[in-house]
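Thread amino acids onto this structure.
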């Protein structure tokens, strides 16, 4: 049984509908991750920081090898410097992922405060040229408040951030699962599977 006349055999559509299970798999993994993140948000933050550390170590080793091979796209000195910084960050993240996640959250807090102040100043300066500047001021105030809260209690900030990541992963996973089953039924309808 071939694909419909609108979708020739070997088309991208046919390939996607035949491999609907890949979307299903991604969706299931996202839902599992989302549930775990919602149930244990601080542990999830630590695991994410740990994985970030592993990736930094791997990248650092690859860049270091390319620096000594002479295949690095930048100068050898910069490549070695970047590789050593990546490896050092990765080792710290693997040894103490919760502290690493807390430090990263403090950087986020600083960025939120600076960005919030920038928005407030910007809104005040252009208030005569635009309407609705109060929304910029409000978003700036909320960013500053969130940044201050994260800075004052990084552990709570980690929990909240992980909860949001978990909720988004759940939504993403459910949407992937729905899309997978729709592709499967569409593929059966047109005979692509």
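Threaded sequence (193 positions):
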């Amino acid at each position: 049984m071939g694909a419909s006349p609108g979708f020739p055999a070997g088309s991208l559509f046919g390939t996607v509908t035949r491999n609907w299970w890949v979307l299903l798999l991604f969706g299931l993994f996202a839902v599992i991750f989302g549930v775990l993140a919602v149930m244990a948000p601080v542990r999830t933050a630590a695991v994410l920081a740990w994985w970030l550390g592993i990736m930094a170590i791997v990248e650092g080793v690859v860049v270091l090898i390319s620096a000594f091979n002479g295949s690095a796209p930048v100068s050898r000195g910069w490549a070695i410097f970047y590789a050593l910084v990546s490896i050092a960050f990765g080792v710290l993240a693997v040894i103490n992922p919760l502290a690493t996640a807390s430090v990263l959250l403090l950087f986020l807090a600083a960025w939120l405060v600076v960005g919030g102040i920038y928005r407030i100043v910007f809104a005040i300066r252009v208030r005569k040229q635009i309407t609705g500047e109060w929304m910029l001021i409000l978003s700036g105030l909320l960013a500053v408040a969130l940044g201050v809260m994260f800075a004052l209690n990084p552990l709570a900030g980690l929990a909240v951030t992980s909860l949001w990541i978990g909720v988004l992963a759940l939504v993403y996973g459910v949407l992937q699962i729905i899309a997978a089953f729709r592709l499967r039924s569409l593929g059966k309808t047109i005979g692509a599977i």
